[in-house]
Design goal:
- The protein contains two helices and six strands, in the order H-E-H-E-E-E-E-E.
- By secondary structure, it is an alpha+beta fold.
- The two termini are 32 Å apart.
Length: 113
């Protein structure tokens, strides 16, 4: 389960930021997990619950946003929405597209004390 490693990395990012900005507690953490990211949000939440015990993130409300997939179709030169890798372009039916967004995993913001 790579989500456990991702949860540990998120905790590390938050702890690094806490050292730089001198905060002691995170009340809320907002994440963006793109629908094409291959990250299971429920598994990541479980991983976070496991790794945050006794840390600055313990008790924080975690909000996960799920941005959709956007791609650039090289056949019709249009920006399209995609919901899965391998989808055909809804405009021209082509399969030569380059992903623009939807595969991200980002910490968007935090509410801290």
């Amino acid at each position: 389960m790579h989500e456990m490693a991702l949860a540990a990395s998120i905790l590390g990012l938050v702890e690094d930021q806490a050292r730089r900005d001198h905060f002691e507690r995170v009340r809320a953490l907002r994440l963006a997990i793109g629908v094409l990211s291959h990250v299971d949000p429920r598994a990541l939440e479980f991983g976070l619950q496991s790794v945050v015990r006794g840390t600055i993130l313990e008790g924080a409300k975690v909000v996960i946003e799920r941005p959709g997939g956007t791609a650039y179709c090289m056949d019709c030169s249009d920006t399209i929405e995609v919901s899965a890798h391998g989808d055909a372009c809804p405009r021209c039916g082509g399969n030569k597209w380059m992903l623009v967004s939807g595969d991200e995993l980002r910490v968007l913001d935090m509410e801290v004390d």
